[in-house]
Specification:
single chain, alpha+beta, 7-stranded mixed beta sheet, 6-stranded mixed β-barrel, 23 strands
């Protein structure tokens, strides 16, 4: 019997090769999409699960809530984890790390290693495999270093670097390589070229809730201890160490950090579980569109087999046999697409990896679990897709089929209309979503920032000291360099620091400030216009005061009183952004006003429009700007260049850098590139949406093309009669297209409100966001209708131009 089903299915496939191939292409596209996204999701869910003890490792975080605003932090008081290990049974081990970009001299060659600074317990908790060295001993000597396999290959090609050493550029300390670790896998929440043991002092201190050390702290629970056992003991821990009200300690599973952590001071970029859900949802929508195509085409083709079904029923075929036959044909058709989908997925995987900006081995795509899941999904989709056709043909009565089969297919036609509406609703929703997402990204990338980010280079942070004037002068000898300024802020990252004070007029509110220290050429170089007042200048002593001398009374050696100190601090010049003026309700004229608040003292000499040098996902901060005094100049240098001769200009900057800072790595970046990197997750989602929206419209139109072809084939005689009676080509096209265009218009009406609601919810994550305009919905709807019309015309023209005599002879 199965052999018979196989023969019938093969004959049906070969009879209509064109439609079968089109159907298979649409199905293969849908299944390939599911296959690829399933592999990507599997990779995202695999973060930090390869440690042998991953289910026992937790990162410590704290949260505070004030004025209804909750803030969670990863940077904690120094000895918090150690105190937990001492006080709470079940905490087996603790470790911590801080991150830095270390610069060393290897011989006379400067090298840069992105490093984790750790203690001796690091490898016992995060058991990363080592290529050279013993994990139990590599971090037991101060200034010992374990480098990555890539770093070893880059700097010690063909050698075992264990035992070799290099010097720290700044401290001149000698660091010795004690091991080489295999490259930290991409599915790890931290990244590093080196792990450095340097006796972190966070272990030796007493827990002080006011003393933060800048390290991320982790605990590992004993095997028989659950997180519930720890949380029950936290109230007593809070009481013993006098935790302030509102400060709460959290234990975050290490495997949840990548997808479930959205913390302000997160040291490494993470993704979000919401993107996993979105990608999964998009994959399912694509699969549904492909399955709807199959159902529509399969049921349409089943009309051509009604006489075959009638004869089989007259000869004794049972409902069960016919249902089994059509279901088996469907499953066989779906399974035949698996080899095509596997090959396609294998070929496009590098391209997809580039789109989502990850480097994932094909093992996530072509392993036994993925292939088994793909087979299961395909068979399930085949069963569900074939069930309607099986149900439809098995319930037809032989007498109706052989006498008047048109009445028997009335329900079938209605179901097909519903499926077309459903399919195009999904397609329209994907296209609208893609346009809105790309519009939001265009806003983030092109929004006026209050400064000119084009042709602006940022150099590594450096203590320029008294060499700053000579360094700038040497750079400006190149005619293509138009400005050099320094600030203790690196584009895209947070400013120097932040603090908050209570609003004196409303005790329920806080004023939160960010601070920035700049040199006198910073505003000119970044082309930040003054809204009021003036910029810093060397001729004004209050702009660059020497507070060490001012805050001491050397005439009689006495200490200054608090009032005297505050009076001196209030004389220093400050520039504020517009947000500061609004938040503090400062009235014009601003210039000359003295601010005498705690942590905020100075005299306003100018106001600038808010400049947005950090992520636009949050509102621009209120920034207080001071001048960096003479030999205290520290920060990143910003160099404005002309758009011509870029390569030669960068070479000149490099030569000047080597002259003044010979032991430092020259690591420059364009500011616009750094700012664009802030939205990598959103860019990834936009790329995926754009790709799959095009795929969705392609699959939908492919199905429509075949469906129209079958409709035209069924209406061949009707079209011939209408032509004999005087109908023109336009009339014939209208006859065929009217129904389908109406269905697509209904689909758009269904998709528009749903998409509007979903995209409004998504846009709430942005403080700066686009408005959703009704023209977007009109353009997408008209575009889909025109595309569908072209598809219909392409199929109808052949029959519309045919000789009606030939049409009327068709049986």
């Amino acid at each position: 019997m199965l052999k018979s089903y196989f023969k019938v299915a093969l004959r049906s496939f070969l009879k209509d090769k064109k439609y079968s191939i089109i159907n298979m292409a649409g199905l293969a596209a849908g299944i390939t999409t599911v296959f690829i996204i399933a592999a990507y999701i599997r990779y995202e869910l695999s973060y930090d699960k390869y440690y042998s003890n991953n289910n026992r490792i937790y990162r410590l975080t704290t949260s505070t809530e004030k004025d209804g605003i909750k803030e969670e932090h990863v940077i904690l008081p120094s000895a918090l984890a150690v105190a937990m290990q001492k006080e709470i049974p079940g905490v087996e081990a603790v470790t911590a790390f801080s991150i830095s970009a270390n610069e060393f001299l290897l011989g006379n060659k400067p090298i840069k290693l992105n490093s984790l600074h750790v203690d001796s317990t690091f490898f016992s908790i995060f058991n990363l495999p080592l290529k050279y060295g013993n994990a139990n001993y590599v971090l037991h000597t101060d200034k010992s270093v374990v480098i990555s396999e890539d770093a070893a290959r880059k700097y010690f090609a063909g050698q075992n670097p264990v035992g070799k050493s290099f010097n720290d550029v700044f401290s001149k300390d000698i660091y010795t390589i004690t091991g080489v670790m295999y490259n930290i896998p991409g599915n790890t929440h931290f990244k590093a070229d080196a792990v450095i043991f340097n006796s972190l002092t966070w272990r030796d201190k007493q827990l002080d809730l006011r003393g933060y050390s800048g390290v991320c702290q982790y605990i590992m629970l004993s095997r028989n201890t659950g997180i519930g056992d720890i949380t029950k003991k936290l109230p007593a821990f809070y009481a013993k160490y006098n935790f302030p009200p509102g400060l709460t300690l959290h234990l975050q599973p290490v495997s949840s950090i990548h997808l479930h952590s959205n913390i302000t001071d997160e040291p490494f970029a993470n993704s979000s579980i919401s993107y996993v859900y979105i990608f999964l949802f998009v994959a399912l929508l694509i699969l549904i569109i492909a399955c709807v195509n199959y159902i529509n085409l399969n049921t349409a083709k089943s009309l051509q087999r009604t006489k075959e079904i009638g004869v089989r029923k007259v000869l004794g075929a049972q409902k069960k046999q016919l249902s089994l036959q059509f279901t088996a044909e469907s499953c066989l058709f779906f399974c035949s697409t698996i080899p095509v989908s596997v090959i396609t997925a294998y070929l496009v995987w590098p391209w997809f990896s580039q789109i989502v900006n990850i480097t994932v081995p094909r093992s996530y795509l072509l392993n036994i679990n993925s292939l088994a899941a793909m087979f299961l999904i395909t068979v399930t989709a085949g069963l569900l897709s074939g069930s309607y056709a099986a149900f439809f043909v098995s319930r037809l009565r032989p007498a109706h089929i052989l006498k008047d089969w048109q009445k028997s297919i009335a329900v079938n036609m209605q179901i097909r209309k519903v499926l077309v509406v459903f399919q195009f609703s999904i397609t329209v929703a994907l296209i609208i979503s893609t346009i809105i997402i790309n519009g939001q990204l265009n806003l983030l990338n092109n929004m006026p920032l209050g400064f000119n980010k084009q042709n602006l280079i940022v150099l590594p942070s450096q203590n320029f000291g008294s060499s700053l004037p000579a360094f700038k002068s040497e750079l400006l000898k190149n005619a293509d360099i138009t400005g050099v300024g320094v600030a203790n802020w690196n584009a895209g990252q947070y400013y120097q620091g932040s603090a908050s004070i209570q609003d004196p007029n409303d005790s329920t509110k806080n004023w939160k400030f960010s601070f920035l220290s700049v040199d006198m050429d910073f505003f000119k170089t970044l082309q930040i216009p003054m809204k009021a007042g003036r910029a810093f200048a060397a001729k004004y002593p209050a702009d660059y005061p020497n507070f060490d001398s001012l805050l001491s009374d050397k005439s009689n050696g006495r200490k200054l009183t608090p009032d005297e100190r505050n009076a001196i601090l209030s004389t220093r010049s400050i520039i504020i952004t517009h947000n500061v003026a609004e938040m503090m309700h400062l009235q014009a004229p601003l210039v000359g006003q003295a601010l005498k608040y705690p942590i905020l003292k100075g005299t306003i000499i100018g106001e600038v429009q808010d400049f947005l040098g950090t992520s636009l996902l949050q509102k621009a901060p209120a920034v207080i700007i001071t001048a960096s005094a003479g030999d205290e100049a520290y920060g990143s240098a910003y160099v404005r260049i002309s758009p011509q001769n870029t390569a030669k200009t960068i070479n000149h900057i490099h030569e000047v850098w080597k002259k003044f800072f010979p032991g430092r790595v020259f690591d420059f970046a364009f500011v616009d590139d750094k700012l664009n990197q802030l939205y990598s997750s959103q860019q990834r989602m936009a790329s995926v949406f754009s790709t799959f929206a095009v795929l969705a419209i392609g699959i939908a139109m492919l199905g429509l093309f075949s469906l129209v072809a079958l409709t035209v084939q069924q209406k061949t005689k009707e079209i011939g009669i209408r032509k004999v009676l005087g109908a023109g080509i336009a009339d014939i096209i209208g006859l065929v297209s009217k129904g389908y265009l109406t269905l697509i218009f209904i689909a758009a009406l269904i998709a528009i409100p749903v998409t509007w609601w979903a995209m409004n919810r998504w846009l709430q994550d942005f403080d700066y966001r686009v408005s959703i305009h009704y023209t977007t919905f009109i353009v997408v709807t008209v575009g889909c209708l025109l595309t569908a019309l072209m598809c219909i015309v392409a199929q109808t023209m052949k029959v519309a131009r045919a000789n009606p005599v030939n049409s009327l002879r068709t049986e």
